[in-house]
Amino acid sequence: MRETLLLDIPHRQVVFTIPKRLRVFFKFDRRLLGDLCRAALRAIERHLEFVTGGLMTPGVIAVLQINFHPHLHFLVTEGGVDDAGVFHRIPRIDDARLEEIFAREMLAMLVRKELLSPEWAERILSWRHSGFSVHSLVRAKTRPEAERVGKYMIRPILALERLTLLEAEGKVGYRRGEKGAELETMDYLEFIARVTSHIPDKGQVMIRYYGLYANAHRGKVRKASLASPLRIVEEELKPVPSKGWAALIWKPNIGLRSAAMIRKVYEVDPLTCPRCGGAMRVVAFLTEHAVVDRIIDHLKLTFVAEKPPPQAALQELLWEADPPAEYVP
Questions:
Q1: Phi, psi for 177 (deg, rounded to 5)
Q2: Which H or E run includes 139?
Q3: Are residues 41 and 126 in the same domain?
Q4: Is 319 left (phi over 0), alpha (psi -120 to 50) or beta?
């Protein structure tokens, strides 16, 4: 792995976890794990695009964990390569931002497959603790460190030296934690069920390679004999206000048409697709009334608000957009 696959750049281990109430889909249809893996990959790509402002191709080694608690372990390069072949290195990953993008990508996938209704997807996103989790604090600065992280990701599910048979109780014991300080006992049937839950289905791929580490990309590199090192550009992680990036994508001259004001006044998220529940991105802001009117007339659109905006929130936004002269610093 170290000599033939990993690039000589820092990596991160990114762990994706899903809510308990959604794990049942993957328990009875393990083919969905591939879709889950691609949803996490799209989340990483969108995160890189948001930070750098362009499309980036990272190097990703994905390991699927298919037990009763399905989750993903990704070994990801700290950044990605643009169309010009320049590697944009990002010093860290904003877990909160990536978690939100991953949640939207996965829920959109379940909605497309008609396993979840758009209403339920929106409801899950509105929960304060949705159950989605992203952890990226494990960092590998060198190739050997990245190799050790990769070995950890594909480690065996148990260590035989920690396994004991408690004959007097008729149970199986397994020591957990550092130096096996914690002993867990269970019935032998439960132990068999836990172990067999890790066995993949026939033909199921457990380790996947994407982007710079995909077989097709590495084949192109070898064919082109591209032996020159990557040109690396350092990127600064853009700060995100506590209210969330999706709620604050606006410019002062856009006024009440901005996404932030729409969300705050009408209490809906304009960046959520009304059909599939997936996350949309802003392509451009149209600020000229004549252009907007022509588009509306051409599409024959009509707009009817389901409910009027709260007057308190509307007054607050009007105050922010056009404060009285005596309050302008």
A1: 75, -175
A2: strand 133-140
A3: yes
A4: alpha
Q: What share of the chain is helix, strand, coil (3-state, %, to 5)?
A: 40, 20, 40
DSSP state of 272: B
CA distance 1 to 4: 6
> Is residue 48 domain-resident?
yes
Q: Are 189 and 202 members of one domain? A: no
- Same domain for 210 and 118: yes
DSSP 6-26: --SS-EEEEEEE--GGGHHHH
Same domain, 281 and 303: yes
Q: Are residues 30 and 125 located together in one domain of the fold?
A: yes
Could you tell me the residue range of the domain that residue 305 belongs to? Answer: 245-327
Contact 36, 70 (CB under 8 A): yes
Q: Is residue 90 within 8 Å of residue 237, measured between CB atoms? A: yes
Span 238-277, pLDDT tens digits: 554 444 444 433 333 333 334 544 554 445 666 777 777 7
Pairing of strands 59-65, 86-89: unpaired
Q: Give the list of residues 6+ apart from residue 13 with CB closer than 8 angstroms, or none.
A: 73, 74, 75, 76, 136, 138, 139, 140, 149, 152, 153
pTM across the whole model: 0.65
CA R_g for the chain: 24
3 inside domain:
no
Same domain, 127 and 171: no
pLDDT digits (tens), the chain, 329 positions? 555 678 888 999 999 999 988 888 888 888 888 999 999 999 999 998 888 888 889 999 999 887 777 889 999 999 898 888 888 888 888 898 899 999 999 999 999 999 988 888 888 888 888 889 999 999 999 999 999 998 888 887 778 888 888 888 889 988 887 777 788 898 888 888 888 877 777 877 888 999 999 888 887 777 766 555 667 777 766 554 444 444 433 333 333 334 544 554 445 666 777 777 777 766 666 767 778 788 888 888 776 655 555 555 545 544 444 454 444 44
